[in-house]
Structure of Probable transcriptional regulatory protein B4102_0989:
Amino acid sequence: MGRKWNNIKEKKASKDANTSRIYAKFGREIYVAAKQGEPDPESNQALKFVLERAKTYNVPKHIIDRAIEKAKGGSDENYDELRYEGFGPNGSMVIVDALTNNVNRTASEVRAAFGKNGGNMGVSGSVAYMFDATAVIGLEGKSADEVLEILMEADIDVRDIIEEEDSVIVYAEPDQFHAVQEALKSAGITEFTVAELTMLAQNEITLPEDAKAQFEKMIDVLEDLEDVQQVYHNVDLSE
């Protein structure tokens, strides 16, 4: 699949370490998921998924509890889920997912982040067709063959299983996310290094150094926006 998931997460965690920004983003996502259904992860699959993700980023319990209690309290704060698509330098492609209580503000900020860094916004569908929605689950302590055997015994067919450094990464259809996790948990695996529903580029591209620096700046600006939850792209940023 060509993507180093643990490296990506470490980079994000390092970038966010001193700002608690990642916790604020999770707090918003947990609140929205809890408000849209029951505030109980056992009966709310969307909430269960967000909490699984939060666990891999070590989001503090008080952040999680506060967001769920806010949803239980009947807060009238509402958020729209938005997706923006656009282009960066040298034909690079970007998808931006946001949660916002001010659509005009978010659209303006995302457009500016593209425009000031060598990119431009595209229309809906202009980029997404080059990406595949994918469940990505990472774990340690097992080999790829052992994980494959566990999933085969559970009658779960996944896209790919690879070994990445000290981890095994499972790529699956989005609707298999919980089934894969439950099968692995039944086999005694309780901790996951990655638990994501993401958009994977069908083909990654490599940028020349000057365009790569400009592209990384654009991604950083997008990820810094308060309303932006996730940014996906098709550029290989590995060193």
In short: The domain at 5-72 is CATH 1.10.10.200 (Arc Repressor Mutant, subunit A). The two ends are 16 Å apart (CA to CA).
